[in-house]
Amino acid sequence: MKKLVIYIAMFIFSSSVFSQSDDDSSELITEFGMNMTGLVNQLVPFKQITNKTGPYAATMKFIKDKNAFRMGIGMHILSDDDFNNSGTDILNVNIRLGFERRNEVNEKFIFYQTFDLMLMAGNFNSPINDFTDTENAGAGIGLGLGIEYLIFENLSLSTEGIGFVGVVGGTSSIFNATIIPPISIFLNYKF
């Protein structure tokens, strides 16, 4: 456990080094994002069979120039009592810490690459998922690609796909790899 705390502290400390640039005149921008997939599914019912909205409900980014330190957290809880059926209980908890490299395509679109340390209990709440709902816990690296559309200067929509490689207990093979498709739509606010 002490090693994990040390690794996380080193990871957070390295974010300040990662986000430095030659020109220190640029300001640090904080961005908060909420997963709006559930709301969009209610307004425009693409497919009501699944309740998969992706692993993260909220994200926080600290952006400086073309770099960002990012965090995400998500929890998905369903039990037999919620729908009064014979399905199993679902508890998914997902946390990530990572870096993002942002590239402006034009005045409205930003393309970004991500590198994350990801922790998971349950599964990733994704329609393409190799893990059962309640018996897994794991940690690994996530590499992703995303796109952001600027509605206004401080308001944007974004989505991203992530490839996960890591150690997951409770599966037939301890070392696992999976893809989390870009199913989550985030509404982001910069302040």
From TrEMBL:
<feature type="signal peptide">
    <location>
        <begin position="1"/>
        <end position="19"/>
    </location>
</feature>
<keyword id="KW-0732">Signal</keyword>
<protein>
    <recommendedName>
        <fullName>Outer membrane protein beta-barrel domain-containing protein</fullName>
    </recommendedName>
</protein>
